[in-house]
Write a structure and sequence with these properties.
By secondary structure, this protein is mostly helical. 78% of the residues lie in helices and 2% in strands.
């Protein structure tokens, strides 16, 4: 009973940090949630072959809920470019579903390596990369669908909402950062829904799943993280107006680099 209480408390703490960072730095919680769940699942004694899949699937499921408030806030401000969203959405949904299928076929160690490499690249971009210089207009419809597929596949495989990929794409194509962030937040919803659904379906019949699982989604972790992240996201948004977010991003980039190297080390 004590171990169960400690585990639930851990999920609440992870959700609080993820929600705060999402509001403070404008990043998706998946980069924090996935490695935290991998560590927790190891301690709980889950089967090694499903740990990474469970962490990614659960992360995507939490993003479905936590992105609602973000999308609504941007919608009220009129910052979402819905025309761009609807051009990306078909590719994003298809890519996220495909990403879940690909992830299911990958060994847990390979999936962990892929995540580690992605986190290191995200850390380098967050710590040292500037805003991409705008060079061109948005691609045609086919180009947007293909871009959506790439964003959806990678996001589903690593368990994120896609902002790390969508925002640079849109700003590179002469979209203002305000509209890019808002539109990226809207795109995170179909990524999370399609990806989480894919992980639920592909993992449904896996005999190695722990109790309280729905496919590759671990329900206790999902509930604990969502409960705290929804409450703490507004706090992060308020802190963004008072704390030096540039410095905090560099500090978090160092943390991500450590996480990435640790994931690569197994």
């Amino acid at each position: 009973m004590v171990a169960l209480a400690e585990t639930l408390l851990f999920y609440l703490v992870v959700g609080a940090f993820a929600g705060t960072l999402a509001g403070l730095l404008g990043i998706g919680g998946g980069l924090l949630i996935v490695p935290a769940l991998v560590w927790s699942f190891h301690l709980q004694g889950m089967t090694e072959t499903v740990i990474m899949h469970m962490a990614v699937g659960t992360s995507l499921a939490t993003i479905v809920i936590t992105s609602l408030s973000s999308v609504y806030a941007h919608y009220r401000l009129g910052a979402v470019l819905w025309r761009v969203f609807w051009r990306l959405a078909p590719g994003i949904v298809s890519g996220a579903l495909l990403g879940a299928v690909i992830a299911d076929a990958l060994p847990s160690a390979t999936l962990q390596t892929f995540f580690g490499v992605f986190v290191l690249l995200a850390a380098a971009n967050m710590g040292f990369g500037g805003k991409p210089a705008p060079h061109r207009e948005l691609p045609n419809t086919l180009g947007m669908v293909l871009a959506g597929v790439v964003i959806g596949v990678i996001s589903a495989i690593v368990g994120i909402g896609g902002g790390t990929l969508t925002v640079p794409l849109l700003t590179w194509c002469n979209t203002s950062i305000r509209h890019a962030v808002a539109t990226s937040a809207a795109c995170g919803m179909p990524i999370a829904i399609a990806g989480a659904t894919g992980f639920m379906v592909t993992g449904w019949q896996n005999p190695q799943l722990p109790a309280w699982s729905s496919g590759y989604i671990y329900v206790p972790a999902f509930l604990g993280i969502v409960a705290a992240s929804v409450l703490f996201a507004p706090l992060g948004a308020k802190l963004a107006h008072t704390l030096p977010t540039g410095m905090l991003k560099r500090i978090f980039a160092v943390f991500l680099a450590i996480v990435g190297m640790r994931m690569l080390a197994g």
